[in-house]
Amino acid sequence: MNGGEDSIGIAVRKILAFQLNRLREQIPGIKQDVDIECVHKSRVATRRMRSALRLFKKAIPVRARKTMSMELKWFGSLLGAVRDIDVFLLNMPRLKLPNRVRDDDKRLLNNLIVKMREEPLKKLIETFNTPRYKRLDKRIERFSHSPVSKRGKGDSFEHKYIYEIASALINEKFDATIKDGRIAIKKGKLKAFHRLRIRMKRFRYALEFMAVAYGGTLDPVIKKTEEIQDRLGEIQDTIFTRSFIDSLRGEFLRSGVNGNLTLILDAIYEGQRKTAK
């Protein structure tokens, strides 16, 4: 994707081009809904692009960076609306439910949530044909293939090499992650752990972007960040699950759905509360 002796300006362009291609590769699968991983991989590619824009912001014209960041955030929210439901459905078989809950009711709840997924998926699929999404795609492609400015060559951030700035950037992200980690542990609040998860994710992406300057020596650290991020993700899943259940409960009450389903929701909610604790 990029080499340790690439300038920052070249490296960020390569990263964006690579992630844009990864995103494009998933679009046919999303449109046909062949595998939920297509949405997940697209979301990851979108997050990595946002992270690169943030990490290397000094090497990108302000207007271009702000526009791409804003539009990627918008598109990421559409992916997230589908992915959150996918995660809930993936977790359902592992959720502990009382023995009195019937299999028929479990299947009914699952089918209702699958039905609810149709609307955000439809909106996501339709987005690919909108002028707004096409402009976003074109902006990223155009920037990733644009030449690096020659102004201030040798002194400006965009002309520095990856190996020159890797250590400083990694240490900066590491220190910020440790700081947020200590806050989360001290306070024990779910919001603090959520912030830590975001911080850990940015730290991991920074490591991945800089890894070429260190050969394979960062691989064990990257693996460890993935493990911690997964644990933090489990906490975040409980937050989303309970929020999602609150919205489901209201929807079920309005539509007069089978009362047994609200009992299932209550059981899941309580289980997720205990898991979070």
Which terms would index this structure?
globular, 277 residues, mainly alpha
Topology order in helix (H) and strand (E) letters: HHHHHHHHH
Mean pLDDT, to the nearest integer, reads: 88
Low-confidence sequence ranges: none
Number of helices: 9
The outline comes out as: globular
Number of strands: 0
Given the helix and strand composition, which structural class is it? mainly alpha
Distance between the termini: 41 Å
Q: Strand share of the residues? A: under 5%
- Share of helix, binned: over 70%
From the alpha carbons, calculate the radius of gyration and give it in angstroms: 21 Å
Largest sheet: none
Would you summarize the structure shown here?
The chain is mainly alpha-helical and about 280 residues long. Helix content is about 80%, strand content about 0%.
Chart the SSEs and their pairings:
Layout: H1 8-32, H2 37-55, H3 62-91, H4 103-127, H5 131-144, H6 162-187, H7 190-210, H8 219-255, H9 259-276
Helix pairs in contact: 1-2, 1-5, 2-3, 2-7, 3-4, 3-5, 6-7, 7-8, 8-9
Explain this structure to me?
The longest helix has 37 residues, at 219-255. The two termini are 41 Å apart. The chain contains nine helices and no strands. With 277 residues, it is mainly α.
